[in-house]
Amino acid sequence: MAVTIQHVRQRLSGAEVDYEYAAELGDAALPHLAELAARADTVLACKALYLASLIGGPRSTEIIAAAADHEDPIIRIAASAALRNLRQAGRTG
Length: 93
Description:
By secondary structure, this protein is an all-alpha fold. 67% of the residues lie in helices and 0% in strands. The chain has helices at residues 5-12, 19-23, 30-38, 42-55, 58-67, 73-88. The mean pLDDT is 93.
């Protein structure tokens, strides 16, 4: 199954996200997570960053690092937390 941005959005929708289920999308979700993390929708961007930290790998690290320069300070904080999560779990690739 090809992973679309709609699949990613669906798994991140709702107040209580099942991140374990969402992480099953794997590396195929990363391009979409990069797009969502760069947008102005703060809540969705933060969810995308956390999911990227759960998927891990070099591309996740790039997505999170790029979000550290986002104009929204909340997204920058989420990027910092996601990077810490990524490193603590040893998923930096």
